[in-house]
Amino acid sequence: xxxxxxxxxxxxxxxxxxxxxxxxxxxxxxxxxxxxxxxxxxxxxxxxxxxxxxxxxxxxxxxxxxxxxxxxxxxxxxxxxxxxxxxxxxxxxxxxxxxxxxxxxxxxxxxxxxxxxxxxxxxxxxxxxxxxxxxxxxxxxxxxxxxxxxxxxxxxxxxxxxxxxxxxxxxxxxxxxxxxxxxxxxxxxxxxxxxxxxxxxxxxxxxxxxxxxxxxxxxxxxxxxxxxxxxxxxxxxxxxxxxxxxxxxxxxxxxxxxxxxxxxxxxxxxxxxxxxxxxxxxxxxxxxxxxxxxxxxxxxxxxxxxxxxxxxxxxxxxxxxxxxxxxxxxxxxxxxxxxxxxxxxxxxxxxxxxxxxxxxxxxxxxxxxxxxxxxxxxxxxxxxxxxxxxxxxxxxxxxxxxxxxxxxxxxxxxxxxxxxxxxxxxxxxxxxxxxxxxxxxxxxxxxxxxxxxxxxxxxxxxxxxxxxxxxxxxxxxxxxxxxx
Length: 484
Hints:
The protein is α/β, with parallel strands linked by helices.
């Protein structure tokens, strides 16, 4: 059954689609078509969704049906809409485009784009050595079928030892190796979250987590984070008591996208509230290795767990390489066995060779992570300096770790700015991608995982685009011209 979006829903997602067209004002139908493409590009409007009828959308937006008709025609011409008489119009992608790792659609061959939609670094030089060593180890496993739903025991041992060093005693039986952190979250949701159940998440939060929750048709409640200070403890705990979620998802270490670090006392109170309310607490530790300042790290959320309410997920994408699809789940041993049984229906286990590569990389973790942290410190400084020079009116709180800044802009322009930046070779993930129903238009996530020169050039281009948006007086609503 094809999903559909109503006119009122699409109007809410579109927000101020007409207001920031750039130096040369586009006709309203072109601005509307561009706004729909923007929703597709940042993932807020899925592929294969039936759009509202032209008259319905015109009524919802308070504009002429002629404008909507022309916008739909433009979308069909660019390959973003497929229509069939009497059946409606569906969102599609143009031929020759694909879904990129950031979730954005992009041209299949686009080497000159500075992609700031992805908050992950290139591979460390040690990866080649680790891959060669893993290939040498591989013959030991070739005599078996190779299906290991819980993962290679030696990798589970290494991951468990990492948790033990951080202060939470863990055995290999409490670890399930997954194909990346995203699969780890997906498996936990499949097992623990009935379709349509209540869930509590931070706002803003990781977009792919929202996508995974949407796949479970979860009823999402949010705790709004302050851009400068992070979590409000009383509001977060009260939200958990009032909404009574089945599951709560948090990112306590260098939260994505704000970069905040949850203090130890809030971690303890959050676990106690989860136990009191019968809430399963999922802690995403994707960025835990990337502390960039010399502050002492708070203990893992699981340290405070006495009743098996906390499930920790993590992986190697951020500190090592996103192309190495190795993640994990830390939970009670019985829960790990249930997750492994469920995982067989999804895949039979992570690739053995990649798991062996992970073993060798984690053996050199201290050296690799130390170098990664120094690299990110330098790039963070370069990004902050570029913003201060080019866009001083934007406000940022410099994070103590992770790979991103959460910038508060000088107006609700995030989506419009992202669309304009794409035209000058910079890909951005606008603020609404990290929230629900088109909110967060005043914010933009800016990763500092790319080289310093790329970051400086990207900010220069963004600043030029932002300047262009101010070159004309923002127009008021007007009656659109007839398109014949």
